[in-house]
Design goal:
4 copies of one chain form a homotetramer.
Chain A: E1 2-7, H1 12-23, E2 27-33, H2 42-45, E3 57-58, E4 70-73, H3 81-89, E5 93-96, H4 106-113, H5 120-125, E6 127-128, H6 131-139, E7 143-145, H7 149-164, E8 169-177, H8 192-195, E9 200-201, H9 210-217, E10 225-233, E11 240-247, H10 254-265, E12 271-273, E13 291-297, E14 303-310, H11 314-328
Parallel strand pairs in A: 1-2, 1-4, 2-3, 4-5, 5-7, 6-7, 8-10, 12-13
Antiparallel strand pairs in A: 8-11, 9-10, 11-14, 13-14
Chain lengths: 338, 338, 338, 338
Amino acid sequence: MIKIGVIGATGYTGLELLRLLGHHPAARVVWLTSENSAGQRLGDVFAVPPPLGRLSLIPLSEADLAGVDLIFCCLPHVSAQGPVAAARHAGARVVDLSADYRLREASAYETWYNHRHTQVALLAEAVYGLPELHREGIAHAGLVANPGCYATSVILGLAPLERAGWLNGTIIADSKSGVSGAGRQPSLKTHFVEANENLSPYSIGRAHRHIAEIEQELGMPSAGREFVFSPHLVPLNRGMLSTIYISLPEAVTEGDVRQSYEAMYAHEPFIYLLKPTAVATIAHTQNTNYCAIGLTLASGTRTLIVTSSIDNLVKGASGQAVQNMNVMFALDERTGLA
Amino acid sequence: MIKIGVIGATGYTGLELLRLLGHHPAARVVWLTSENSAGQRLGDVFAVPPPLGRLSLIPLSEADLAGVDLIFCCLPHVSAQGPVAAARHAGARVVDLSADYRLREASAYETWYNHRHTQVALLAEAVYGLPELHREGIAHAGLVANPGCYATSVILGLAPLERAGWLNGTIIADSKSGVSGAGRQPSLKTHFVEANENLSPYSIGRAHRHIAEIEQELGMPSAGREFVFSPHLVPLNRGMLSTIYISLPEAVTEGDVRQSYEAMYAHEPFIYLLKPTAVATIAHTQNTNYCAIGLTLASGTRTLIVTSSIDNLVKGASGQAVQNMNVMFALDERTGLA
Amino acid sequence: MIKIGVIGATGYTGLELLRLLGHHPAARVVWLTSENSAGQRLGDVFAVPPPLGRLSLIPLSEADLAGVDLIFCCLPHVSAQGPVAAARHAGARVVDLSADYRLREASAYETWYNHRHTQVALLAEAVYGLPELHREGIAHAGLVANPGCYATSVILGLAPLERAGWLNGTIIADSKSGVSGAGRQPSLKTHFVEANENLSPYSIGRAHRHIAEIEQELGMPSAGREFVFSPHLVPLNRGMLSTIYISLPEAVTEGDVRQSYEAMYAHEPFIYLLKPTAVATIAHTQNTNYCAIGLTLASGTRTLIVTSSIDNLVKGASGQAVQNMNVMFALDERTGLA
Amino acid sequence: MIKIGVIGATGYTGLELLRLLGHHPAARVVWLTSENSAGQRLGDVFAVPPPLGRLSLIPLSEADLAGVDLIFCCLPHVSAQGPVAAARHAGARVVDLSADYRLREASAYETWYNHRHTQVALLAEAVYGLPELHREGIAHAGLVANPGCYATSVILGLAPLERAGWLNGTIIADSKSGVSGAGRQPSLKTHFVEANENLSPYSIGRAHRHIAEIEQELGMPSAGREFVFSPHLVPLNRGMLSTIYISLPEAVTEGDVRQSYEAMYAHEPFIYLLKPTAVATIAHTQNTNYCAIGLTLASGTRTLIVTSSIDNLVKGASGQAVQNMNVMFALDERTGLA
């Protein structure tokens, strides 16, 4: 049994993680923390039935960091820096769901997150937690930086092209996300009446922070590659679709493209490569840890359209965190996620 | 041209009112106020196109109360007390959309709203603004207290029975409201992810404040009449349906019931009495000032089921306010609302 | 391993059942049938990833009825009569998710479903599959008639009162259901644009067929008991809430009521009795096999309001079917459902 | 008073048109047709209150084509060909909301719609009904071909660039549409449970028929211009957003772009050019005849992102049809649409 601690359990990723761990045959949650709701049970914070609802929340100061094998940190960025370091110092392995340890360069972090990184030494140790790209590193990592949801959908949608050297020119990702991606903190933008029957682009162009990790993982920027990213908020709870546009090199055929995806993803347990005529929809992956990918060449053009769908709370956050745990502890990667 | 001032224009009822007044051939908005957004235009606060979006917001302190014929007050309860009184003292007629002047007895107000009423003298002057019940009073009123949305749907659904003396025993109203009824202030309950794909009862039984005005207008409580009220929040923006259960007196037939509604509502411009086999749905009245009413006798029983639908922002708030204005200024009641 | 066959696998209850069985450690699906989609894979019919999506559909005529231990029949009412009988004759135990074997009296079936029952002999053998009421019978049953979704929410909400002898007068259930309860067959009523931003009562009063099984299980009709039932369609995919109104006998206190529920449900694995001040919402049970129950006495009255929430596809259909399977095969009732 | 006939009044565009005409001070609907619902009232087909609901539907064969000044044809493509021709022969001016008269070349029609055009002579007479591009032609037209919804949002979003000669390379439009754009015919794709909590690309690349009219109006294809179009179905009733990506020529600055839009649209009554930092959302135009346009240059790149929002049933269909009527009859273009 892997003994688990969860820091920051009262956001949507924390809840989803606890749901998944509740089904996991090899994991046992020992403690979970919340500063605002310490002393309460999870059922007081969310409308969840027992046994999940009976779990008790404690403040981080009372958590026995050394008494667990693995700590999931579900705090927001910036605020995760310290607790992750404390957990590592106590000897626990860590999966951090925030952005704090995703960027290899502290300077990049400081540019994109507009905040100093206080744990630069730890950055060197962190492995970017996308198993399809970094399985080996994750297996032996002390600290895994779980990817952002947008980043997961875009990187998985493009990685075979990058490997093949076919990622050139202006790459455009038009992404659509359900509202749970914005977290549980009420705001006007996520107020029901404002978000329902609406659809809003935001931070479009070169403004969204996930650009940093997408570029890091896909070898951008580089000569001749440019990335444009347009997130949109859509009126549904969970799910994310990225529609990605790439101009293929002259010689590359639709068949070549397909082969590159099949080669890279044939044995991946959570990649669902759709049939040639199919496009990915949000329904394809909702409530699952899959990334569904569709490939369409706009007829008569060189523009490849990749549709890439994930559940932002599962493959885009807590499911991927469990997948990373499975890799770290040498379990079948699908355990608790099938 | 009726010169209009609007106090508190940046909530959903304020916006809806300004939309309606924008179409009204006999009304001209002279000023609109907001304390939080003074100095901005309405288009900065809401995603509304011109010409509505170009209207400028001023603080109440700069509003020329005496320079308009009619003031709509769209502030929340308690905070409307003072501005309404100031407007009346300045000589303007007032339609108040809050609950502050709906209850004839200050003591009832203080019981239900848990707050002292500082303008008791004005209470005597206020007319409850449901034209179907108080058209004459409204026509000559200086101050009209615009009804609550739940109250409108329930009172209109039951008024003919009350007139006929058939309202007895336990009357149950199971009401379902779209989220705009809860206002524009973000909260966890109205956070998209919490309200979407969910449906929540709240303040059920005898806890919701609209009970006070419903009972006042329907002659309750009285010997042998008891009112039970269950509001529910449903995942849609606008619209309200009340499903109301009444036990009919022995001698009363389904035909008698129908006749009582037809008699009372035959010439009402905004009551849509549905055909015998039909039930009211939210779609029947969305974006209109109508109240749609369906009458169903549960076969083999004495239980009458009244389904009563309104748009909570129109007949349940701003549309009714404009209807009241039309009555107050001797215009065709449908002006600007057809 | 329990060998499983599924008849009629391409509706929402069929899909949900296959999802649940996919997680079940003691069940193995051997075959699944569809007349319209025979020859296809489940992933061709629904946007579901592998391994679920790879399951192959066969026509019923090719299904080896005798080669499995348990058959789930997910056909619509009337059309389930024959296949269930065939399955029983082949020696398989059966959980039927249709209404065809729920009513003990063929005459009642013919009255409510307006169709002759061709398998009257089998009716005598069928056990109504609500474990909270009929666990013993289910354990030994050859044929379990899985309850309707509305019926589950109402019966579980009222059973303790019925046992205590406190169910009298007019009992009113105002139920709200997500759209998946209406099945997967497209219709104008379930067309997105018609159902979204709308809420519609239908079959209100004494018209809905689930009344028959509710009355059968709660000993109605009887002298002095009358049941009024109002279903409503609400714009969400899955979930159901029944708000139930009962007039309590004079001597019965709120504490008595609570005790009756605690006594009956204390050891039930899937009843979530909420704290005294809480009401059940759809979120309480979504994607779970729980029934959440809230108890509220309308203050100053004798009216008890029971709020009862289930997921219509889980406790209201396929989850309850798996729970019944667990009881039938002497497994821990929570297996595969936790 | 303009005397109006409406052919095919029982789809969503027909209903929206009748709503708008109901407010129009200079138009009077003389008759409306439906083959399936002839003999019924509009209130039998839609949940609409009087007076709209009282309008009677007749079969087309009984419509007095010569007795009206203007006929709106709301039939689907292909089936509009004949009735439009009949209306013209009877002497009425026509606004056709189908695609049948939008393409100047019959061969293009036959390629994209896979159907022969039987009224080629009339094609020469038809004017593409986008007032911002063809106001003069519309004013004198006998037959106006009302644009498609996607086409309206894309063409208005790009027209200033086309005029300036800055439309080059691969132009990508990623469009998102509410479900009413798919019409009122029930289908699995538009079944509530399938469309809700989902988001689906469809006909992406070069497959959607609106490409034909977009290219016609924007001078494509031509040397060095290529158009890629990705429609998506999103879970909301009405509204459409196109996010459009264009690579700007080297010398063109963000200021130049802005000036080109301001120059072309400064006096347009229904273009809402947003402030430099703002993006268009669906809320900006819902229930209005506006097209809202936002301009964003992805920083550090040459990629211009145009966000263009319309209500698919208003500016994308019936509102634009009324705007065209206003132009045709020399009324203020905003009449009935403000």
